[in-house]
Amino acid sequence: MNDYKERLATTLEVNPFISYKEAICHIIRDDIIAGVYAPHYRLVEYKIADAFGTSRTPVKQAFEELERQGFIYLKASTGAFVAPYDASVFSDLFRVRYILERQACGQACERATAQDLRKLFRYCVEMDKAYQHYGDNESDVAEDNFHRHLIECAHNEYLLKAYSSIELQIQRFRKYVTRSWKQMEAAKLPEEKYPFVHIGVEFDKHRTYLFKTQISYEHYLIYHAIYNRSPTAATSAHMFLMSLNNPTQLFL
């Protein structure tokens, strides 16, 4: 919270058309996704306002937006609290993601332009490099870029709106699962100390062993299927990729 004034100034400098409410919302949301604030942590309105150097009005508006997005919950006469992690929500998010991306694969085979394909291939290359040479943060960014552009390749505004509504929550849950497994390993604590960390256990094992080879390869297969205008091959490659990413068989 000590750097909130500086981050707010930077955000407004980069995008002078963004409102204070939007900038504050983005900054707090980024910190929630990164795990700076634990579930049920109380966000005190006047302290947040002081940290940003603003009045309480844009902070209150940002809280309302964050509640609408599912990142916090508000309690009357008590304040704002960071939303907890819930296994059923985790499962539902990735099921919806699977449905949207599967639909996008089919439509991208019909609608993707040459420029779309070049960009999708570039994201494949970037992802491959990130898996091979960089850490989790770089790999996550590369994967997010690929999957969002996969949706964009469908040129379907309704798919894109639906995906945008869950994209940030997916990032939050994925980072939490990865953090939980690493913390559990470092502390040698039992799995029951972390909600649905059994997903993280399998997730981490599969990331360690498969991301450098099989998962990267499956992203290329999706690209090649779309390049060759084959909806069947694209959706099949996507289904197999999702099964590798989610060894608990959320989609099968």
Describe, in short, the structure shown.
With 252 residues, the chain is mainly alpha-helical.
Please describe the topology of this protein.
Elements: H1 4-14, H2 20-34, E1 42-43, H3 45-52, H4 56-69, E2 72-75, E3 79-82, H5 87-111, H6 114-133, H7 136-152, H8 157-187, H9 197-227, H10 231-245
Antiparallel strand pairs: 1-3, 2-3
Helix pairs in contact: 1-2, 2-4, 3-4, 5-7, 5-8, 5-9, 5-10, 6-7, 6-9, 7-8, 8-9, 9-10
Word description of this protein:
This protein is mainly alpha-helical. It has two domains: 4-82, Winged helix-like DNA-binding domain superfamily/Winged helix DNA-binding domain (Arc Repressor Mutant, subunit A, Orthogonal Bundle), CATH 1.10.10; 87-245, Four Helix Bundle (Hemerythrin (Met), subunit A) (Up-down Bundle). 74% of the residues lie in helices and 4% in strands. It contains ten helices and three strands. It has a three-stranded antiparallel β-sheet with strand order 1-3-2. A hairpin with a 3-residue loop joins β2 and β3 (79-82).
Query: Compute the gyration radius: what is it?
Result: 20 Å
**Number of spatially distinct domains:** 2
What does the average pLDDT come to? Answer: 86
- Shape estimate: elongated
User: CATH H level of the largest domain: which superfamily?
Assistant: GntR ligand-binding domain-like
CATH class of the largest domain: Mainly Alpha
Low-pLDDT residue intervals, each spanning 5 or more residues:
247-252
> Could you say what the CATH topology of the largest domain is called?
Four Helix Bundle (Hemerythrin (Met), subunit A)
Cα(first) to Cα(last) distance is 42 Å
Q: What is the number of strand segments? A: 3
Sheet with most strands: 3 strands, antiparallel
Topology as H/E string?
Answer: HHEHHEEHHHHHH
Q: What structural class results from the helix and strand content?
A: mainly alpha
Number of helices: 10
The largest sheet has its strands arranged as 1-3-2
Strand content: under 5%
Question: Helix coverage percent of residues?
Answer: over 70%
Level-2 CATH architecture of the largest domain: Up-down Bundle
